[in-house]
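Example 3.2
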Amino acid sequence: MKVSLLLFALVACVTSEVYFEEKFDDDTWEKNWIYSKHPGKEFGKFVRTAGKFYNDEDADKGIQTSQDARFYALSRKFTPFSTEGKNLVIQFSVKHEQKIDCGGGYVKVFDCSLNQEDMHGESPYRIMFGPDICGPGTKKVHVILNHKNQNHLINKEITCKDDEYTHVYTLIIKPDNTYEVLIDGDKKESGSLEDDWDILPPKKIKDPEAKKPEDWDDRETIPDPDDKKPEDWDKPEHIPDPEATKPEDWDDEMDGEWEPPMIDNPEYKGEWAPKQIDNPAYKGPWVHPEIDNPDYTPEPNLYSQKEICAIGLDLWQVKSGTIFDNILITDDVDYASSAISNLKSTQEGEKKMKEEQDKAEREAAKKDEKKEEEEDDEDADDEEEKVPPVEEADHDEL
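Structure, written as tokens:
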């Protein structure tokens, strides 16, 4: 048994593949990535940097959006592969160090038909995955799958991170047609591709021949037929104010016939309605019977992508500053997990450096404020010195 398990582990290790990995380790990255030249779009440039705060400046360098209110369209191709019979893992890190207000932080995965120099928002893709933020109402993780040239959005809400530190997003699609979405290695959502996307028609539909019986009573309560309205129930809602008196200067000929103002009637009981009792004929809510959907056909290979050949960043950002790094496409879940083993150290280092920067900025602001106050005091003293003294009158001249 142990030998079999060992052999299985060795075979899995040998067959696992890393299809694409980009860490932006040096400035040669631009030789491999291609900017779109699609007409009619004002595109921004990426710059390689670790940003304003980091844990290890060299290791933490990625590519950062550098211009506000710009589209970004950048892609890279690699050796094509199929996911037939394999996991698909898409993973990358995002750092919104600019406190992003509106902009994308996702990636798109393409087949080989992508025209890189003409990539734009309508370019067909196979998968779109990652965070998207716009105002307080949109802070979600997109998971969009293309099936038969139609894009399908996940029907679950997955909340993304919106702070200023590095976070890693991982999508795992498995050959059993299940998936997982992880953030920083923690599972945030999982389930079935068929259940969580409207890719296939539903298995069951309401029977078009079935109709609710005419005598079906789904009222839980009914008015009590024995309940009668009391004879003294009906009272007017408003009555003339009994304490009001006609003003002494009221002239009927000039002002018209005087009428006292109206007030709420304390005896008014509202509109009468019989009390409710349990309905003895109640049958419960009617449930529409379902039948097998004739348009439904199961697809055992729903997970499968025949060809994956490129990855791209196709974004709009109002405020630039997002850093993308550590892009990975593989079929090895364990390798993807090990690739982010130092994430916690990265986040702690970023937070520590940013806290130091924030403290230094606060202290500098206090110094500037104090300096301005001192300068204002000096200016006030100078003004007082410039004012000539007032000469007092000679008492002998009075």
